[in-house]
Amino acid sequence: MAELRAQVAEVTMKIIELAGRRNELAKEIGALKQLGSLPMEDERVEDGLVVQVLEECARVDLDRRTGLKILNALIAESKRVQGVPGRPPPLPIFSKALELQRRGVKLIRLDVGEPDFAPPPSVVEACSEALFAHKTHYTESQGIPELREALIGYLARKHGFEASDGEVTVTPSGRFAVYAALASVVGEGESVVVPEPNWPAYRATLDQLGARTIPVHADIEGGWSPSVAEIEEAIRPNTKAIVLSYPNNPTGCVVSKELFREAVELADSRDLTVISDEIYNEYTSRPCPSVLDTIPKRFILTSSFSKTWAMTGFRVGYAVSSKEITSKVARLSSLMFTSVPEFIQWGAIRALDADDDVKRNVAEMSRRVDAACRELDAVDGLEFVKPDGGMYVFPKIRGGRESAESLAQKALDAGVSVVPGGHFGDYGEFFRISLGQPERTIVEGIRRMGGLLS
To answer: How far is Cα 381 from Cα 399, in angstroms, rounded to an integer?
Structure first.
């Protein structure tokens, strides 16, 4: 035993020594990159290493996830010693806008992805009743049985999907549902295909998990719809999932049912999990496909009460998947949050029957989309595609005359806050306008933006 342990220690020290030598080589490569003005990151090189590592894992009978974790750590070290800059903090405009407001500056907030609608009165009433009834205790991590049952009924009415109790779990916000979904199927050193532009939380979550985002770059010329061929080309040997999120944030794009179905069939053929973020599914002017209409072999639907029912501050969402996956999501909730507050869950039950409030919110958002597009049409310096749904517009600054970062800073000085497109992928000439404010406020904000571009 002692001799074997000594050999293990010797091999371990040899691994560390080789890792140090690898860092020295990485430094030399970094210096050559700088000398030749070459990109500091080369995805093709990383892809080649992934293939070699997986082949070697098979040869020496090492678990592939262990091999990928080791490779991920080595690549991270290479980037550190080469001085590869990290990504900028998410949405700094949001922080700057808050700071200006704290100083008393009046701003038109077109940066915040939050509708200004009030929650349904029945929800407020139900929460109040639950509080006075002392429903203020820990609950099951997957949610109280009554809310899970109400969600099952809602999914049956909306999609004709018959879920069992173990296939639905309540989460502390839709954002956490997305985090838990990714964490449940993706390991360190693995990758996920994400069509962009898209909500930056996907990439941030994958970074946190030590996983890699493989973007599929959609463009305005194609109406923001990626092709299945592009999605297939992005799949790597270590890819575990594909993210589909429609209506899209920030473009409002709704892909066709045919494209959605083909993407699901592709995922099935490559043994991948489809993660479908359907938080804006009600806000749409055309039929929006759902993962529950197609039912892949492996899928996770994530959603929230935040947008449809204007319950952003309630922080309650849900996930739908297999019993195995939903139990993993519930375990993460238990580990990090215990449960969604009990009285909020009773309010969420009432929300699922508030159909009139939903119709009113959807109609109002549709009017705001129309109003925003009319105003943007009058701005010569911009082009855009009218959103099919969601609550955003994603205009492009024509002719490369100015970066969105620069325009966003000028807009703040003019009393308007928007989000530069670089936060949603490689879209430095675009910016996102949120339609979470009243129509007259949106119109005034866009007119001020137009004045900056005239």
So the answer is: 8
Which class for 178: exposed (0-12), middle (13-18), buried (19 or more C-beta within 10 A)? Answer: buried
DSSP string covering 119-137: PPHHHHHHHHHHHHTT--S
Q: What's the rounded mean pLDDT across residues 211-217?
A: 96
Instruction: Grade residue 285 by pLDDT with cuts at 50, 70 and 90.
Output: confident
Q: Is the dihedral of CA 31, 36, 37, 38 positive or negative?
A: negative
Cis status of the peptide bond prior to 200, with omega within 30 of 0? no
Amino acid, res. 360: R
Strand 212-217 with 191-196, pairing? parallel
227 and 331, same domain (yes or no):
yes
- Residue 294 is given by DSSP the state H
- Identify the weakest region by mean pLDDT among 79-83, 135-139, 223-227, 259-263: 79-83
CA distance 68 to 211: 10
**Cβ-contact 148, 165 below 8 angstroms:** yes
Could you list the residue range(s) of the whole structural domain that residue 405 is in?
92-116+356-453
Q: Give the other-Cβ count within 10 Å of 88's Cβ.
A: 10
Residues 281 and 374 in one domain: no
User: How many domains are contained in the chain?
Assistant: 3
Q: How many CB atoms lie within 10 A of CB 447?
A: 13
